[in-house]
Structures are given as structure tokens and as C-alpha cells.
Amino acid sequence: MSKTIDMEVLASLCKRRGFIFQSSELYGGINGFWDYGPLGCELKRNVKDAWWKTMVRAREDVVGLEASIIMHPAIWKASGHADGFADPMVDCKECRKRFRADQLCEEQGLALIKNGSAFALPADAACPACGSKNLTEPRSFNLMFKTFVGPVEDESNLAWLRPETAQAIFAQFNNILATARQKVPFGVAQMGKSFRNEINPRNYTFRSREFEQMELEYFIRPDEAVKLICGRVATLADNPDLAGEPQADWGWEVWHRYWVEQRLAWYRAIGLPAADLNQHWQTGDELAHYARACVDIEYAFPFGVQELEGIAARSDFDLSQHQKHSGKQLDVFDEALKQAVDRLDADAKDHCTQRIVAAWTGRGKSGEEARAFAVKLYEGKYVPHVIEPSAGTDRLALALLCNAYDEETITDEKGKTDQRTVMRFHPAIAPIKLGVFPLVKNKPPLYAKAREIFAKLQRRWPCFWDESGAIGRRYRRMDEAGTPWCVTVDFQTLDDGTMTLRDRDSMKQVRLGISELIEKMDAEIG
Ligand code: ATP
């Protein structure tokens, strides 16, 4: 149900009203980088605050982390990014433009040919810019930005800007576990800048080279531990109540679905209509080799239905990799598991080990690995598995801008029609919550009253003072900024304290006093 918005028109409003500017515009801009202006930075801050509030502060089982952007390069070796975080790139030999081979093929309804880790173009692939078929073969291009730590620019000082925030959570797992007084299942959330040297940044801010992510790593027990503790592992077939409290017997499949539901509910709560949100369940070779399931939550952007967030069940891959590469233990001791295994006799343990070996070898792992895992389990230990909801702040801000944008024809009492542009943000997301206007500026008592009201409200919410131009013009400017309400302070305010409140969406006006106004805004901003 993608809206028909001209992205150029939206970008021009974003520039005109101070949501988004091209980075370094003064010097002609730099491709793939964007700046958020006075309204845009408030919008983004609201998005991040809403995420943090829901994912961390409102939960007892999630804590936060704020890690450095540059980390030890060994982290990116362990995670697989140093060797595998690459996109296939092709160049047009005629017009010299550069493209991502997978995207170029997808847009032309073709399939990129995979030969192991190498790629080849199908014969009829053509340059999207000039139509030439004279293209280079795809070459892998690592997306991580390189830099050097310290004054000497040699390989031993090479470092990367993080391409995702998640890895720091794994690298700090032991410290968090030791300090946060949490037990599995629990999560660690982080938001912050990530950098990817995208081959072809495009669709406005959708694919940028510098962007922000909001990521959660939610650590759960492996199903084998759940089975030993609870005697069973709940699956989706058991119809668990995903909106209710999580249960001890949930297996990874239920936890994964739980997070998909949580995240969808959050997107709806901040104003994205359910009809514009889509779930894409990755299948077959779309799935990373270690992932058991991955869902992309997509939004119907004007340029197509595209990913906002990926929610992956990543097994114990990440912590195991870091355990292997760092040589440090990243397993946990689980008291409930130890108590459960202490009740088992030798036969029951043998039986359990056989089941684990059969299941693991069925998934392509070695019997030896399975037996080592079982031995740990009987000590009450395991490497936690993880569910990862990973969202992009800038993509979400763009979705909210697209969703909010509206143009409508309005007719006044005299039958005169006019066109208005209005950004219909959810009040929680709107950069400015309230416009405060004195009806006139040359009447000192009225003006002073309006300033007093403004000062009172501004302590609670971002408000905007506007005293210039006709009231109608002031409303229109606030409509374009997406401000849900405006109040006008007039002569009656001096008598009875009431003001005119004008609603952005309905344009209806009512009179109310300041305490009623505060109550209303509190309820609607949430
Ligand atoms: P894509 O397939 O679109 O390149 P991805 O699957 O590589 O994205 P992830 O690695 O799963 O993305 O990153 C998680 C989230 O981070 C994405 O869902 C997206 O919202 C955001 N993100 C990733 N790359 C970019 C980018 N270049 N610009 C803006 N946001 C991004």
C-alpha cells in the first residue's frame, strides 16, 4: 500500500523545513552522508528515545551498552566481517558508473550467478545508466571503512569503523554478565553510529554510508537446556501467548516470534500503519549459514517495500566465534540447569547425550562437538543463543517522514479552497509538540501572558514560539513541521485563562485551560 509520494518533493520539504540536509552541501555535498537539521535531529532523538524506553527502560530483562566505534580489529576477524562482509560490485566499461551486482540483477528480473563465494553476471545484464552490456565481472568489495590508530599507517595499526553496533555486545558479554545482575534469558541493547562503504548509496537516506542502528542481542537458553529444566520445549505449534509474559519453557522458535511481534507492535505504536508493514521470512540461501530464522520487517516506501529491521535467530554463533578467537570462556553457569541435571542418573544422561548427538549430526555438526556440548550442559553451563532485532534509525526516520507526508485541499467558511502540506507525525515522534502564538504582539499584557504560558509548557515539551504573520500562516508552518497542536493566546485568556487549541489533523479548534491542555498532551504523547 505504498504511498505515491514524489521523493523529490519530500526531500525538498525536508530541506525547506530543516529536517534533512545534504552533508557538506557548502562544498557540493558528499555521496551517502546526511545531516539532520533542527527538526530532523529532534525527530531522530524521539525515535531513539521511544526505542530505548520500550526496549530497555520498560523491561527488567534488558540492559544497555554504549561501546566505542573503533574496536580491536580481532573483533571483526571473529565476527566474519573482515573476510566476508562484502558486496559484489560491477563497473560499466562504457559510462564508468559502478553498481551492486545483486541489485542490478534484481532490478532487471535476473538472477546473479553464484559459484561458491564468487559471482558472475547473467549474459543479458545491462548497465542501468546507459544500457551497455559491456560490464566488468562482479568483484567482492568489503564494506568496512578502514582507518589507522596512531601516527603510523601500516597494517599493524589498521582498524575499522564498526559496520554494526552488535559485535561490541558480544565482546563485552562477560563484563555485562558480571555487573548487570541478569540471568539468561536477558538482553543487551545498544544504539549508535555504524559505517558501511556502500557501493551505491541511494533512495535518499535509505542506504547511507554513515547511519545509526538500534540493536538488541537477546540471550536465551539453548533448547537442550530448556528441555532439561522444564521437561519440554514449547514451540509455535503449542500456541504460546506471545503478547503475554515470556515463559521458561519457550524454545528459540517462540522467542524469535515473540520479538517479531514485539517489534511490529512498536512500529504500530509510533504511527506506522499495520497495512504498510510487511514481514519477509528469509528462506534457503537468503539465510546466513548460522541463522535458524530471519525475518525482515519491511515498510512500503514510495520507492518499494524495503527492509527497516532484521530479526534473526543467530544460535550461539557469535559468542562461540568470540570464544574461539579470544581464547576466553563466554559460557554461563545456569543454576536451574545444574539443579535439573543433578537429578539425572547416569542412564538418563546417556540417553540425553544420544538425543543431542542425533539432533546435532542431523544439522551437519560433528558428534564430537555434540558430546562436548553435552558434557558442559551436565556442569550447568552453555554458550547462550541469541535473538537479534536489528533496526536502522535513519531508515525508520525516513519511513516516518514518508508516512507523515500529506497534501490536502481545504475549503474555508467562505468556500475558498487552498492546498496544505501537513506532516501527520504521531505526537510521540513529532519534533515540536506545540506551537504557542500570541494573537497580537503589540498588547503587552496579552504578550506577557502568552510568554508565561509558553515558558510553562516548554519545561515539559519542545514548543515553538511564533509571533509573526497571520495566525493562519503560523498554523501552516506548524503543519509542515508536523506539530500536532497550536495554542493561541488572546484577550479572553486574560479574563478566564482559556486559550484556543487547534488540532493539526482535523484543524478543529476548542477552548481550554492550561491544566486541561497539559492533561490532553500527556495522554496523547504517551
Ligand atoms: P541491506 O540488505 O538493506 O543492505 P542489511 O540486511 O545488510 O541491509 P543489517 O546488516 O541487517 O542490514 O542491518 C540492520 C539494519 O541496519 C537494517 O535493517 C537497516 O535498517 C540498517 N542499515 C543497514 N545498512 C544501512 C545503510 N547503508 N543505511 C541505512 N541503514 C542501514
What can you see in these coordinates?
This protein is α+β, with helices and mostly antiparallel strands and 526 residues long. The chain has 3 domains: 1-71 and 155-334 and 384-407, Bira Bifunctional Protein, Domain 2 (BirA Bifunctional Protein, domain 2, 2-Layer Sandwich), CATH 3.30.930.10; 340-379; 432-525, Anticodon-binding domain (Rossmann fold), CATH 3.40.50.800. It has 18 helices and 25 strands. It starts with 6 loop residues before the first helix and ends with a helix. The mean pLDDT is 95. It binds adenosine-5'-triphosphate (ATP). Adenosine-5'-triphosphate (ATP) is lined by residues 164, 196, 198, 207-208, 211, 213, 307-310, 390-392, 394-395.
Low-confidence stretches: none
Percent strand equals: 15-25%
* Name of the CATH first level of the largest domain: Alpha Beta
Q: Give me the CATH superfamily of the largest domain.
A: Bira Bifunctional Protein, Domain 2
- Percentage of residues in helical conformation: 25-40%
**What is the second-level CATH architecture of the largest domain?**
2-Layer Sandwich
The counted number of beta strands is: 25
- Could you tell me the mean pLDDT? 95
Output the radius of gyration: 27 Å
Integer count of domains? 3
Shape: globular
Q: State the end-to-end CA separation.
A: 28 Å
Number of helices: 18
- How is the largest sheet built, in terms of strand order? 3-11-12-18-15-14-13
Largest sheet geometry: 7 strands, mixed
